[in-house]
Amino acid sequence: MSEAIPEPAGGRPPPAIQSPNQRAWRRFRRNRLATASGLFLFVVVLLALVWPLFERPGIASHLPQALTWPPTPLSDAQFQPPGAGHWFGTDVHGRDLLSRVIYGARISLLIGAFGAAVSLAIGVSWGAIAGYAGGRADSVMMRVVDVLYSLPNIIFVIVLIATFENPMKAWLAAGRIHVSARWLLLFVGLGAVSWLTMARIVRGQVLSLRTRPFVDASRALGASHARILLRHILPNIYGIIITYLTLTVPSILLYESFLSYLGLGIQPPEASLGSLIAEGAAQINPIRIYWWMIVLPGFTLTSTLLALYFHGDGLRDAWDPQTGSE
Question: Cα separation of 218 and 317, whole Å?
Fold first, then answer.
């Protein structure tokens, strides 16, 4: 007769074995600031996506009037302070500031998401190849990253826009491509300076994983280099990639806002958070300060940046195996 397996003390079942992803999710949920930041970002993105639907007559009839103003039409209600009809007030052209802030947040987040996508595509590929290849190839590829790091990022983007905007406009007009040249250059410029940190992070992780026994076993079984990278190494650093991808978005948002403030980013009648702050700053005068035009877009930008940073920090702490107690 076989002996019965003794039960744990107290009759409790043994704790379930959790995967690294489950342990990271548990640590992330303990961070209330990061969780609240993620919820705030979800609300901002949701508002940016569904806000155009509020202008439809069938939906607008069930909403307060302050939520139904379009962002671009001009009116005679210039410089209206925040009130029941316009919760964020109006600007110099009588446009509802709340709808323009939501519209500007959508554009700013779109630029941030595109820059993060470029960082993901170029940075992960560059860092993974450099770390896996090693030797002279790694040295040459990382020296390229060091050279690009030495360039002032914001100056590079400014020179790119100032130099190529007119030729880009002519090329787009000749090809009958209805795309803003300024948008394309912003995407290219901000994307070109956003992948360097990602490449360094990924390269360091791949260097530490390429000598592990499971990689040697895959190589002995005849797996190709691409398969080893895509199926065995990169899946082990997805958490770190997602973390630094989240931290890339606020830096790109800050670059775009600064460029728009200087007049080199998004231009009226389109709006971003940076251009709205610039419009508000232009109305500051000794006679009267229309505070809502600069305070409310600035508060929105600051809140979004802080939420992105706190959310990214929470993800980084969750994926760091030395952080938190199990």
Answer: 31
| Residue whose C-alpha is closest to residue 279's, from 264, 257, 294 | 294
Q: How far is 190 from 110, CA to CA, in rounded Å?
A: 12
Peptide bond between residue 269 and the one before it cis (omega within 30 degrees of 0): yes
Phi, psi (deg, nearest 5) at residue 103: -65, -45
Compute the distance between CA of residue 3 and CA of residue 21 in angstroms, rounded to an integer.
36
- Condensed to tens digits (0 to 9), the pLDDT of residues 235-284 reads 888 878 888 888 888 888 888 888 888 878 887 778 888 889 888 888 88
Contact 66, 86 (CB under 8 A): yes
List the alpha helices (DSSP H) in 83-152: 97-118, 124-133, 135-150
**Other beta carbons within 10 Å of 129:** 18
DSSP 149: H
- Any residues with CB less than 8 A from the CB of 34 and at least 6 apart, and which? 28, 310, 311, 313, 314, 315, 317, 318
Residue type, 223: A
CA distance 61 to 50: 16
DSSP codes, 198-231: HHHHHHHHHHHHTTSHHHHHHHHTT--HHHIIII
CB 257 within 8 A of CB 101: no
The pLDDT tens digits of the residues spanning 134-190 come to 889 999 999 999 988 888 888 888 888 888 888 888 888 888 777 778 888 888 888
The encoded tokens of residue 93 equal 């052209």
Contact of 153 with 193, CB cutoff 8 Å: yes
Residues 6+ apart with CB under 8 A from 113: 249
CA neighbours closer than 13 Å in the CB half-sphere of residue 185: 25
